[in-house]
Write a structure and sequence with these properties.
This protein has helices at residues 2-13, 21-32, 45-52, 68-73, 88-103, 107-116, 120-130, 136-143, 155-158, 164-179, 193-204, 211-217, 230-237, 242-255, 263-270, 289-295, 306-311, 332-345, 369-372, 379-388; strands at 59-63, 80-84, 299-302, 318-322, 346-356, 375-377, 396-402. With 405 residues, the chain is an alpha/beta fold. The chain has a domain at 165-270. Helix 1 (2-13) runs antiparallel to helix 2 and helix 5 crosses helix 8. The chain starts with a helix and ends with a strand.
Length: 405
């Protein structure tokens, strides 16, 4: 299964000859993507739940990624969630979170495990409560060893959000900032939006003006840590220079929202959830713990391609689809195959939500009009959701609803 899943990733990413410059970049990306990429997902679940209008009859199909949003969607009380992913580490992380929600004795233990995520007690709790209820594959993953020989479950004693491709990218970004004489943690000292703006403009923004930063961000491989393959790098840059695009996205993250309410910014600037006492995703909030525990059994985590999963489902059986930014990776044939299955399996008034590195939706002119014409693009709502997405790294959040306006 792991080999098949990796082949699916390579089919999505590899578009050029093996020994061409672009081909080598694509293969370097797929090699990096084989391990844990996201310990935390970087799409705002509050935006998702509002846009999708999840209700008690909803069957949600989503890409699993780091699992934060999968568990957070449970607070909206859907009938069931199917979480699919090609990355075995993400599948294992989702299954660990669901098992821990049901097996750990209380919210305090769950919070310590996934909000603080840096306590030796977490490993003991894993052995006592969680490991006995895990499926064999997930247990083998967490009790297996990483590339330097440490057991993977030990990441929850060392700070799991410093691990994975994204965690190492944020670590590298902090190191780079310090080499420019700047400490990104200073953002967390801000007491108001005005102070956030002042710190960003005087300390962080000038880092992007250096010749080295302009050169570094012009290299597609520099953004592999964000999970951005070469094709998505091109979409993100568009006609602008990449240093300017990244500066604008970081400005929104640093200044666009009050840091007291933005756990994405706290992760980026503090490399964790501020000791677990700062803002948190819905699934980690104490008020939602009972609902997450009670509904965790509604989630089915699958190690499968999104399109292949839909192909196995009955017509008219799904009404909420969450594609994250996966379509940025796809060629036209893959997009059309995906939307053919979405349209076939969609119930009346089904909703599809996805994100793009660039600002516009990527579907027009690429997906067959016979399929796309059946869907209503909610342009004004999409612009609003884009503005409100606290993760701030995407150019567009897009909502499509089955049926004409």
């Amino acid at each position: 299964m792991a080999s098949t899943a990796h082949q699916n990733v390579t089919r999505a990413v590899h578009r050029h000859r093996h020994l061409s410059k672009q081909g080598l970049l694509e293969r370097a990306f797929t090699f990096a993507f084989r391990g844990l990429v996201y310990a935390q997902i970087w799409e705002d679940p509050e935006v998702d739940m509002e846009a999708l209008a999840i209700g008690p009859d909803s069957h949600v199909v989503t890409i699993a990624s780091g699992g934060c949003n999968v568990l957070s969607y449970l607070t909206a009380d859907p009938a069931k969630i199917t979480a699919v992913d090609l990355n075995t580490a993400h599948v294992a992380l989702n299954r660990l979170k669901l098992a821990a929600a049901q097996a750990l004795p209380d919210h305090r233990a769950f919070h310590r495990f996934f909000a603080r995520a840096d306590c030796r007690e977490n490993v003991a709790a894993y052995r006592t409560f969680v490991a006995p209820v895990l499926d064999d594959a997930t247990r083998r993953y967490w009790e297996g060893r990483d590339f330097i020989g440490r057991r993977r479950i030990g990441g929850f004693a060392r700070g799991i959000y410093r691990h994975g491709l994204l965690g190492r990218f944020i670590c590298a970004a902090h190191l780079l900032a310090r080499l420019h004489g700047v400490d990104p943690r200073r953002m967390l000292d801000a007491k108001s939006r005005e102070e956030q703006r002042a710190i960003f403009e005087t300390e962080l923004a000038p880092v992007f003006d250096s010749a080295f930063m302009r050169w570094l961000t012009s290299q597609p491989a520099s953004l592999f840590g964000l999970g951005i393959p070469p094709a998505q790098y091109e979409a993100l840059a568009g006609d602008a220079r990449m240093d300017g695009v990244l500066k604008a996205r970081l400005e929104k993250l640093a200044c666009g929202f009050d840091l007291k309410d933005n756990y994405f910014a706290v992760q980026a600037f503090g490399r964790g959830y501020a000791g677990g006492e700062g803002p948190l995703p819905p699934y980690l909030q104490a008020a939602n713990h009972a609902a997450v525990v009670e509904r965790a059994g509604r989630v089915d985590v699958r190690h499968v391609n999104f399109t292949d999963f839909l192909a196995s489902q009955e017509a008219g059986s799904v009404d909420r689809y969450i594609l994250l930014d996966a379509q940025d990776w796809m060629d036209d044939a893959q997009l059309n195959a995906l939307w053919a299955q979405i349209t076939r399996t969609a119930k009346q008034n089904a909703r599809v939500l996805f994100r793009t590195a660039g600002e516009p939706s990527i579907l027009t002119g690429r997906v067959d009009d016979a399929l796309l014409s059946r869907w209503n693009y909610r342009a004004e709502e999409s612009r609003e959701y884009t503005a409100r997405d606290r993760s701030a790294i995407y150019g567009g959040v897009h909502l499509y609803v089955l049926g004409r306006a």
